[in-house]
Amino acid sequence: MPGRLQHRSALITGAGSGIGLESSILFAQEGANILLVDVNFENAEKASKQVSERFPNVKAIPFKADVSKEDEVKAAVDLAVKEFGRLDIMFNNAGIMHSEDDNALNTEESIWDLTMNINLKGVWWGCKYAILAMRQNPTDEAKGLHTGGSIINTASFVAIMGAATPQLAYTASKGAVLAMTRELAMVHAREGIRLNSLCPGPLKTPLLMDFLNTDEKKQRRLIHLPMGRFGEAVELANAALFLASGESSYITGTDFKVDGGLSSAYVTAI
Ligand code: NAD
């Protein structure tokens, strides 16, 4: 069986952990070459080793970049194109949730700026250089390859719901990712470049579990989750794979929610 991403190449940011790591594994399993980008190079290296050992038929290259830095994102995209000859999938997934991110009164400006620079500006740089690369993708009819590609930007359920456990900068940054992605999807629709936001619900990954560092904090959220559990990173990776593949060829500009029903909830079962 040919893989769902055979002959494709992907760049995944935040590939060293959580959703990015699970997506790297799934994308490789489906035949894609991958540039695994993370500011934590040690984790990116570990992840690429894990991928290469399991799927020796694809290339999995680690790369250190801070997505908030334009020149580092450009360098990552340039390397992917140099190594793989094309960039079909850009997964702008890296993000942070700072422990000092709070409400309007208590959040320091430095925390706001840091969060915006990574979660929002980082996605902009990723989109910018992916669009430039995807325009240049060579066509190969025999392999089903064309110009254009799929860009997936990780937002969050908090982009569409309010929470009385505030993380103001994080929430604002993710809302902006949704708005930016919709607009870019419209601008580039006729170029064969699809852009979609992925909206995860609360997940069992280091990002959230480090933030919810007491049982009380976890229970405060769990009571609101229709399925009674946090999501798993691989459940998001499966959604990202769908958005990356040709199976989602008529989907662009969407807020793709993978939240266990959370954003449809009023009263949940107990
Ligand atoms: P994670 O912490 O497990 O992984 C995030 C990765 O991003 C880490 O490897 C980290 O080193 C990397 N990273 C952080 N800053 C970076 C930077 N400046 N440049 C490059 N890499 C950087 O988190 P995760 O849960 O897998 O989160 C992935 C995405 O999903 C994030 O955008 C996050 O906001 C979003 N999200 C997560 C949840 C959740 O509950 N975990 C919910 C909604 C949205």
UniProtKB/TrEMBL annotation:
Transmembrane segments: none annotated. SUPFAM superfamilies: NAD(P)-binding Rossmann-fold domains. Keywords: Oxidoreductase. CDD domains: SDR_c. Pfam families: adh_short_C2 (PF13561). GO terms for molecular function: oxidoreductase activity. Belongs to the short-chain dehydrogenases/reductases (SDR) family. NCBIfam families: PRK07231.1. This is Short-chain dehydrogenase.
